[in-house]
């Protein structure tokens, strides 16, 4: 009897499993629900997005900027908001490619690993049927947001570190990884089967050079 391969799939979220950006949507949601009143917040958001594209983003500053509207808020106060928001975008930002990739790995172990805030990533993962989820963790004191990050933001090499820690002594025969971003190059290089999903310019060049699988929405 042929032994079935033990496989693991690593998924980035924004512009990979989702056809869109979770945190941009979250900022809009918070504005509509009164958590953000100052219009200058959006100008600052644009600056961070520009820095991200240029590869000079300070991930701590960015993550704490996103958390700042929730400083002093008890987690229970926004539990319903989080559920409503993640339900909405899990419907709006998924497409045929999302379904195809999840079906392809239906019987494999899966990890959703994103730089987005972990309380959003975890709920989105539940709605996509992914149990293991990593995101950027907020700091809480007695379940109240401090506006700070707990540990390191889940970006770049930190994604790989968390995956390795999760794998532990498990032996996978094949690891696949999916991302749109050059910032996830370490994650893609860690895998046996890297996939570039509608990649940015820098990642596209590397994917072409290395003959990686490229999927375009």
3D architecture notes:
With 217 residues, this protein is of the alpha/beta class. It has a single domain (7-215), classed as Rossmann fold, CATH 3.40.50.1000. The chain is 46% helix and 20% strand. It is built from ten helices and eight strands. The chain has a six-stranded parallel beta sheet with strand order 3-2-1-6-7-8. Helix 5 (79-92) crosses helix 7 (118-128).
Q: Please tally the helical runs, counting DSSP H or I stretches of 4 or more residues.
A: 10
Range of strand content: 15-25%
Estimate the helix proportion, in percent.
40-55%
Which superfamily, in CATH terms, is the homologous superfamily?
HAD superfamily/HAD-like
Q: How many structurally independent domains?
A: 1
CATH class: Alpha Beta
CATH topology category name: Rossmann fold
SS-based class: alpha/beta
Could you say which overall geometry the principal axes of the C-alpha atoms support?
A: globular
The poorly predicted ranges are none
Distance between the termini: 39 Å
Write the layout of secondary structure elements.
Elements: E1 7-11, H1 13-17, H2 22-32, H3 40-54, H4 59-67, H5 79-92, H6 96-104, E2 109-117, H7 118-128, E3 132-136, E4 138-141, E5 144-149, H8 157-167, E6 174-179, H9 185-190, E7 193-197, H10 201-209, E8 213-215
Parallel strand pairs: 1-2, 1-6, 2-3, 6-7, 7-8
Antiparallel strand pairs: 4-5
Quick synopsis:
The protein has helices at residues 13-17, 22-32, 40-54, 59-67, 79-92, 96-104, 118-128, 157-167, 185-190, 201-209; strands at 7-11, 109-117, 132-136, 138-141, 144-149, 174-179, 193-197, 213-215. It has 217 residues and is α/β, with parallel strands linked by helices. It is globular and about 55 Å long.
């Amino acid at each position: 009897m042929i032994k079935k391969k033990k496989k693991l799939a690593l998924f980035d979220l924004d512009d990979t499993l989702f056809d869109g950006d979770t945190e941009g949507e979250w900022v809009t949601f918070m504005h509509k629900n009164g958590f953000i009143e100052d219009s200058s917040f959006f100008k600052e958001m644009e600056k961070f997005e520009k820095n991200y594209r240029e590869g000079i983003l300070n991930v701590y500053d960015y993550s704490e900027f996103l958390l700042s509207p929730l400083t002093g808020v008890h987690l229970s106060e926004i539990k319903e908001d989080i559920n409503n928001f993640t339900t909405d975008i899990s419907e709006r930002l998924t497409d045929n490619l999302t379904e195809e990739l999840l079906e392809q790995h239906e019987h494999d172990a899966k990890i959703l690993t994103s730089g987005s805030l972990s309380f959003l990533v975890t709920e989105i993962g539940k709605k996509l049927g992914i149990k293991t989820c990593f995101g950027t963790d907020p700091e809480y004191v007695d379940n109240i947001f401090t506006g700070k990050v707990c540990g390191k933001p889940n970006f770049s090499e930190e994604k790989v570190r968390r995956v390795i820690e999760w794998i532990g002594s498990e032996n996978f025969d094949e690891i696949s990884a999916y991302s749109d971003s050059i910032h996830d190059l370490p994650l893609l290089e860690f895998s046996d089967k890297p996939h570039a999903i509608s990649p940015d310019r820098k990642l596209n060049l590397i994917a072409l050079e290395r003959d990686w699988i490229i999927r375009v929405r």
